[in-house]
Specification:
The chain is of the alpha+beta class. It has one domain: 3-Layer(aba) Sandwich (Aminopeptidase), CATH 3.40.630.30. It is built from seven helices and seven strands; from the N terminus they run αβαααβββαβαββα. It has a seven-stranded mixed β-sheet, with helices on both faces. The radius of gyration is 17 Å and the shape is globular.
Length: 194
C-alpha cells in the first residue's frame, strides 16, 4: 500500500475497512449476545469448534464474547458479522493473542447455522484478514480447526490460508481421536493474492 495523499484516501480506506459486498463488521451489541451464545452452545456447532461438547452457562459465554470484542487492547480485535444491507446478525469473528514482537495473531469465527454455505463466512474471513494485516500491522495470522471440519478448511483455503501442520489425534469425540489442522497466512502471501 502507498501513503495517503489526501483526506479522500483516508476516508475511502475507513469506509471499506469493515465492509464488504454483502457483510460488514461492527461492534458487539448487547442484543447480539443471546444469539451468539445459542450458536456457540448448539451441539451441531460445538462439535466443530470445541474439544468438549457440553452445555455451558450463558454468563460464561457472554463474558467470553465481551472479552473478544472489547477492542481496548492492540492484541485483539473482535466484531459482530452482520448483513450489510439488512443488519441481520450472521456471526462473530476475532483475532486474538497478537504480540508486538512477533506480530502474529490467531483467528476464530462462528457463524449461525442458518447463514452457513452462503459465502458470508468467506467474505467475513477476508475482511478480518484485511483488518489484521492493514490495521493491526500483523505479519502472520494463524488458526486451528479440526480435520473433519471440511467446510471450514475449504473456506480458509479459499481465503489464502495454508496448512502448516497437524496435531495428530488431539481431540476425542464419538469414541475416536481426530486431528487438529494448523493453518496460517503471511502478510506477503495475502498481498500477493490480492
Amino acid at each position: 500500500m502507498t501513503a495517503w495523499e489526501s483526506v479522500d484516501d483516508a476516508t475511502s480506506y475507513a469506509q471499506n475497512l469493515l465492509a464488504g459486498d454483502r457483510v460488514r463488521l461492527r461492534a458487539l451489541q448487547e442484543r447480539d449476545l443471546s444469539r451468539l451464545e445459542a450458536w456457540w452452545s448448539d451441539p451441531d456447532l460445538a462439535i466443530l469448534q470445541q474439544d468438549v461438547v457440553r452445555p455451558r452457562p450463558a454468563e460464561s459465554m457472554t463474558e467470553t464474547f465481551r472479552r473478544w470484542s472489547s477492542n481496548d487492547e492492540y492484541s485483539s480485535a473482535g466484531f459482530s458479522i452482520v448483513h450489510r444491507d439488512e443488519g441481520t446478525l450472521l456471526g462473530h469473528a476475532t483475532i486474538f493473542g497478537a504480540d508486538v514482537k512477533n506480530r502474529a495473531g490467531t483467528f476464530a469465527i462462528v457463524l449461525g447455522p442458518e447463514h452457513m454455505g452462503q459465502g458470508y463466512g468467506t467474505e467475513a474471513v477476508r475482511l478480518m484478514l484485511a483488518y489484521g494485516f492493514r490495521e493491526m500491522g500483523l505479519h502472520r495470522i494463524g488458526l486451528q480447526t479440526y480435520a473433519f471440519n471440511n467446510r471450514a478448511l475449504a473456506a480458509y483455503e479459499k481465503a489464502g490460508f495454508r496448512e502448516e501442520g497437524r496435531r495428530r489425534e488431539v481431540v476425542f469425540h464419538d469414541g475416536a481421536f481426530h486431528d487438529e489442522v494448523q493453518m496460517g497466512l503471511l502478510e506477503r502471501e495475502w498481498r500477493a493474492q490480492r
